Amino acid sequence: MTENDSTAKAALAFQSGIEELAATIPGSYRERGANGTLLALTHAMVPALNPILSAAAKPDSAEIVALAEVAERESGQAPWSIRFRGEPDEEIARTATRYGLTTTSRQPFMIVSLEGYGPARPEPTTEVKVRRLSGDESDIFAAVLSAGFGAPPEMISAIYTPKVLDNPSISAYVAENDRGDAVSAGVAFLNDQYLGLANISTVPEFQRQGYGRALTEAILRDGHTAGAHAAYLHASELSLPFFESVGFSTKEYWTMLSAF
Question: Where in the numbering of this chain does the N-acetyltransferase domain appear (predicted)?
Fold first, then answer.
């Protein structure tokens, strides 16, 4: 498989992961265009989780225009976005402006091969305990992400519900300190032999102490064991050096158009 093939497959897996998340959240709205463009409205107050999402190398502008009308009608009070690989063409840019999506975010799309996460990989030397959460521990997950990102816990709980955390293809993790307190958290989506990482965050007072790294590497090991060939994520410019240090490299850039 070429690098371009791997990136394309990871993009499709990301789209499938968003669709699976929306399918698991009650009250969500999903629609696919004939050429594969996805509209997934979770109705969370997070634009990235209410996307018109194209995984194609060249987004289908006409589908995005058509789905934008649906998004505006079905989103209610929830902010929505348009997400795609590369840069917007004139038609996509006009559509975004028409609906007030005037904020542009450029997102590194990073991938790491999990080939090195097999049985021959040395066991981690860290004593940090990392574990997967069950659905009835969703409040723990929300509390850690709330502290890490500065978002209200109820906003996170509305997305990562007990049902979502119990979905076999969605795994929420925490890393604990020596007192057993959860201080770092993240989530992984397994689709089509690709593992998607998201929301990796550490409580501020425990940052730069190895918890995020221990968490990320444990997620990657579990992903390999579950059959994933590679892992992917969207990074911010701030988190880019950390994920590079874990082995991820930027393969391309995505664009997100949103109201804020």
Answer: 128-260
Tell how far CA 203 is from the center of its chain.
Answer: 19
- DSSP letter at 59 equals -
- In the chain, where does DSSP find H-type helix? 3-24, 61-74, 90-98, 138-149, 153-159, 162-165, 211-225, 240-246
Residues 121 and 83 in one domain: no
Q: Which residue did the predictor score with more confidence, 83 or 120?
A: 83
Q: Could you tell me the residue range of the domain that residue 180 belongs to?
A: 115-228
Residues 35 and 53 in one domain: yes
Question: Which residue among 58, 80, 108 closes a domain?
Answer: 108
DSSP H stretches of helix in 82-210: 90-98, 138-149, 153-159, 162-165
Decide if 203 contacts 175 (C-beta within 8 A): no
Give how many domains the chain has, as a whole number: 2
Q: How far apart are CA 18 and CA 111, in angstroms?
A: 17
Last residue in a domain, options 108, 128, 149: 108
> Among candidates 55, 21, 52, which has minimal Cα distance to 164?
21
pLDDT at position 120 is: 65
pLDDT one-digit tens code per residue, 162-219: 999 999 999 999 999 999 999 999 999 999 999 999 999 999 999 999 999 999 999 9
